[in-house]
Amino acid sequence: xxxxxxxxxxxxxxxxxxxxxxxxxxxxxxxxxxxxxxxxxxxxxxxxxxxxxxxxxxxxxxxxxxxxxxxxxxxxxxxxxxxxxxxxxxxxxxxxxxxxxxxxxxxxxxxxxxxxxxxxxxxxxxxxxxxxxxxxxxxxxxxxxxxxxxxxxxxxxxxxxxxxxxxxxxxxxxxxxxxxxxxxxxxxxxxxxxxxxxxxxxxxxxxxxxxxxxxxxxxxxxxxxxxxxxxxxxxxxxxxxxxxxxxxxxxxxxxxxxxxxxxxxxxxxxxxxxxxxxxxxxxxxxxxxxxxxxxxxxxxxxxxxxxxxxxxxxxxxxxxxxxxxxxxxxxxxxxxxxxxxxxxxxxxxxxxxxxxxxxxxxxxxxxxxxxxxxxxxxxxxxxxxxxxxxxxxxxxxxxxxxxxxxxxxxxxxxxxxxxxxxxxxxxxxxxxxxxxxxxxxxxxxxxxxxxxxxxxxxxxxxxxxxxxxxxxxxxx
Length: 476
What we know:
Blueprint: H1 33-46, H2 57-70, E1 78-83, E2 86-96, E3 106-111, E4 130-132, E5 135-137, H3 145-161, E6 169-174, H4 185-192, H5 194-197, E7 201-204, E8 208-211, E9 217-226, E10 228-237, E11 241-242, H6 251-264, H7 273-286, H8 289-299, H9 304-310, H10 314-319, E12 323-331, E13 337-338, E14 341-350, H11 356-367, E15 372-376, H12 391-404, E16 410-415, H13 421-426, E17 431-433, E18 438-439, E19 452-454, H14 455-474
Helix pairs in contact: 1-3, 2-3, 3-14, 7-8, 8-9, 12-14
């Protein structure tokens, strides 16, 4: 991701019954044969190191392709791709042909790469799938090799069973999602092999549910839109001099003043159709003062009193606007010299519809110092284009949540992180982060230490997503 792809929804004080978890094996019972096969595939994928520093997405893609070919897919329908410049950052494309000549395909999207993980920092080997205390622990166990494995397993099972969907179902597993300056396979496919990924819509990471931390599922979300991640370099320069005769004209002081201004600036409140729906629906479910403020702000973005209340929740605050924050700092060249240069990385998450140039212009206006230089770093991707709240996508997902988790609401949400969806959306393919699984209030160590995913969540999401994709594939 990337980016931290957490919705931080566990703070929602909802009253919900513990969901009925369809097809769930009791934890003290052996797995079904199909689940055992899936677990082996999941384990193989997790234990294939795909970190940028020492791993290989290409190897992971080759191993997943082998599973599909064993199930009966031919070279015509499955291929591994890479470029000469990035031989280890390849990916996989595949398709299960549909019977319809007119209905557009569905695309299953996933990234194979993972965030770096140092063995010395982890309680367990990050590249060994360890099942312990009803959790799977490993780097990528949650972000996002569980879903990758579900996609591959789903297509392999359907091929073996002889299932022929109405719509063609495509699969793209790519590399480069987790690192800004890496080769990005989703971007490459959208620009060079669009026919391989072109679809009515794509299903991706970014959705899912959150519990109260005590085993009760509160909400399921479908991601409809995301922010754009963009880094800026803010830098102060100075002739410097000897530290024994200091002056106020100091690059570090000037940079500190600029950082403080950025810290204190609030970008204006904005809404998309998705976030307006989210704040309205979650506000109704909460029913407390925060909920009332959410509803009021969705109705009137200029309601400052309501905004002040909603801003108290950091996740809500971020969903309402562009945010910019200092993340890396450097400055000076010697202990006994006045600094000649000081700089900071400003990481912005740009609200859909706003631009890199416009955000940079706002930062320059906020800093209001001609001696401070601002530049945009390499862009990770295009400006985010939010997909529509399409009933043909939303309603089947809502029905599936009602089937698997009675009484639990499905609410559209916008991710404040970033996914590979932006590349496909720029090419005209709407992308939705699917519900089905769930996480804990602490985020499960995604991008951090001891990443984990609940065992029940993985197995039930596998059944949920199989049913959901089949529903989409057979829809008119």
